[in-house]
Amino acid sequence: MAKAQDIDVEPSEPYRHAAARVVRVRAGELFDHSEGVLDTRDIERVHDMRVASRRLRAVLEIFAPCFPQSEFKGVLRDVKQLADALGARRDPDVHIDALRAFSRPLLAANKPGVARLVEDLRARQSRGNEVLATELERMRERGLQERLLALADAADPEAQAQ
């Protein structure tokens, strides 16, 4: 799993300045994990992006008072929708992985039943991937990355001018 970047916040640092810095870092982490996220052969990619989306959502909620509410609400909604789509794809990944491990020591006669469950989960994984692909495209079309950076800029306009 990808480790979150440490972000040092000084007690004397203005809240708005910390909000802007933290949101920029967490947004960057989210988009850094987007490459290859639809590849079902590497389930850690979707996991890393999902974790990054949850971290981003948390800091958005923590620093909510720093942001213009009209823009904030739409950005938070979009981050939540992306996290939901990542979850729809991630859940079958976890179950498939667990069933594979479970089936290794089974008698050969029991393996077809597990294989059938995995097949059903692969169908769910595929549907989840379609949902995620649609959400990623919507995220690009709506400029979520740019909107997150604009939100950070709005939180701390003085830092933007420097």
Summarize it.
The protein is mainly α and 162 residues long. It has helices spanning 15-32, 43-62, 69-103, 111-141, 144-155, 157-161.
Distance linking N and C termini: 35 Å
CATH superfamily: CHAD domain
Number of domains: 1
The helix/strand class is: mainly alpha
Binned, the helix content reads over 70%
Number of helices: 6
Largest sheet composition: none
Please identify, by name, the CATH architecture: Alpha solenoid
Return the string of H and E elements: HHHHHH
Give the overall average pLDDT. 93
Beta strand %: under 5%
CATH fold field value: CHAD domain
- CA-based shape: elongated
Query: Roughly how many Å is the radius of gyration?
Result: 19 Å
**Strand segment tally:** 0
Residue stretches low in confidence (pLDDT < 50, at least 5 long) are none
- CATH class placement: Mainly Alpha
Question: Can you characterise this structure?
Answer:
- By secondary structure, the chain is mainly α.
- It is 75% helix and 0% strand.
- The protein is built from 6 helices and no strands.
- It has helices spanning 15-32, 43-62, 69-103, 111-141, 144-155, 157-161.
- Helix 1 runs antiparallel to helix 2 and helix 3 (69-103) packs across helix 5 (144-155).
- The radius of gyration is 19 Å and the shape is elongated.
Question: What attributes characterize this protein structure?
Answer:
mainly alpha; CHAD domain; single chain; 162 residues
